[in-house]
């Protein structure tokens, strides 16, 4: 019993998130010197790795696609809370924060996470195999949500800028939440098999994870779920703490203010990126795609309703419409995604194309 307790205490996946939250509490609201910023960044990286570990434990217990859904929704809920908090306290410079963050999340997930997953799987098995029915439905939902929430405001005429009028914002929020809820019902209910990993011959693989190790006990899974939430809180909180250093670096490099949102989005999405990469290396490409597209969907479907509610007490305009360059990148991402998903099989080429699209997004965000 003593040995078990000692192993629990010394397990880094348990101690690092707790220490990260302690550091978050000690540094919250303070101006951090460079040395402390380095310590915070170290624990941020450790919390990311711990979050991936606990997400995999939970996913192995509940099976797919519930496991991917847990991580995607957990990260997005905390990300939404961070966006709303920054918008309330940020003033005029945050009027486009929701748009920049959501668009960055869509580009990172639909090009970065998806492309990296396909690349890793194709390097291992020459061809990455996944279920086109489930992945195609997810991509269609992401495209619809992105268009309604980020493209339409650019062309509406009720307001002079790229923003919704109050009734339009309410409609977009209700439509986003309803569409996301419908997708979750389909994914976890009557068409759950569309989102399970498939073998090279197209048949559905086992749903519990790796097909060999026994699922963890209910107690271990519950503990991992709690530690996952702790780790994610630490990730988002510490990312906010290092954001002034990021802003200073961005300003020193003469980069646009919107690039700060890209860097923070990259940090916040690290747990999903690492989890998707590990799944792809284990030939669980469908799990990787569930994470990528599910995160993009949750980012829009939960952020827009939250922003609509927060706009009741937010001052100033709420800019949601994308600019010309962003619209072009979004359209190219959707078209490329469709061509990637339809066959249900992908090679190194498709993975490389999506990663180049991500590189183009990052470059043009830095040099618009």
UniProtKB/TrEMBL annotation:
Please report the record's description of how this protein sits within the membrane: Multi-pass membrane protein
| Pfam families assigned to the protein according to its UniProt record, in alphabetical order | Na_Ca_ex
> Subcellular location, in the record's words?
Membrane
Protein species of origin: Micromonospora haikouensis
Transmembrane annotation, as ranges = 12-29, 35-54, 66-90, 102-123, 135-156, 168-186, 218-238, 258-277, 289-313, 319-341, 348-366
Answer whether the UniProt record assigns the keyword Transferase to this protein. Answer: no
PANTHER family, per this entry? SODIUM-POTASSIUM/PROTON ANTIPORTER CHAA, SODIUM-POTASSIUM_PROTON ANTIPORTER CHAA
UniProt keywords (A-Z) are: Membrane, Transmembrane, Transmembrane helix
Q: Name one GO cellular component term.
A: plasma membrane
Q: What is this protein called?
A: Ionic transporter y4hA
Note whether Transmembrane occurs among the keywords.
yes
Which GO MF term does the entry hold, naming one? sodium:proton antiporter activity
Read off the lineage from the record: Bacteria, Bacillati, Actinomycetota, Actinomycetes, Micromonosporales
Residue ranges occupied by any Sodium/calcium exchanger membrane region domain in the UniProt entry: 35-188, 224-364
